[in-house]
Give the backbone structure.
Amino acid sequence: MTELIRIRASSLPELFDCPARWEAKNIKGMRLPSTGAAQLGRAVHAGTALFDLGRIRGAGLSAEDCATEVVKTMRHPREEVDWGDSSPAVMEGIALALHRKYCAEIAPGFDFVDVEAECRGLEIAELGIELTGTTDRVYRDERGRFGIADIKTGKSAVGVDGTVRTAGHAAQVAVYELLAEEATGRAMDAPAVIIGLQTAKTDAGRRAGTGSVTGARELLAGREGAPGLLEAAAAMLRSGIFFGNPRSTLCHQKYCPAYESCRFRR
């Protein structure tokens, strides 16, 4: 029996953006320091997860009770962090502000039933791959259906009109739906939701919003004459051919550990 190739769901967007960068990180094990923005995202995820778990369990935790998790994550990173032109103190302030905004403006609008639902392995034997990963949230809508919610932080996460850009997230969202079904035993029939939290140094620039994604799974499964993304990913992994994408917005020494030696930048 052929050994299954394990893929982290969170890495799939990078595989399709620049396979060579994905290979450097996930197969060759090459590493770069994490970024301040990534550490901010981890901190917001940690604090909001504790808050939502408290709501599910009826623990009565306030946003301030859970803010300690934000601070702890920011001050004790699990890996080296390159803070760039910012500082840990500034980024911590932004993370705390976004945490409070989420707790006040986003969480009350959802009936969450699972937080950080972990799938240790979803086997897709016909493709020779196994998907792993954690889904941020599973919610129940007013019709009793279940769906996933994925939290995104970033400088362009939410538009000035409060809308969240969902373009480009469908493939990852669809994988999270599969993982959530495996982890919880529930069908994900409700639209997937992207929860956007806009990072900014001022209160005026910080925004929170949501956007929905429907029909994402067709991208994964494909249709007759048009293979899905999972089949394409499996073929790439089996072939061992990982081409580079020098036009990627992340084609930079700050984001790619293989940047200096990459032959595709010529």
Observations:
- The two ends are 40 Å apart (CA to CA).
- The longest helix spans residues 36-57.
- The chain has a mean pLDDT of 92.
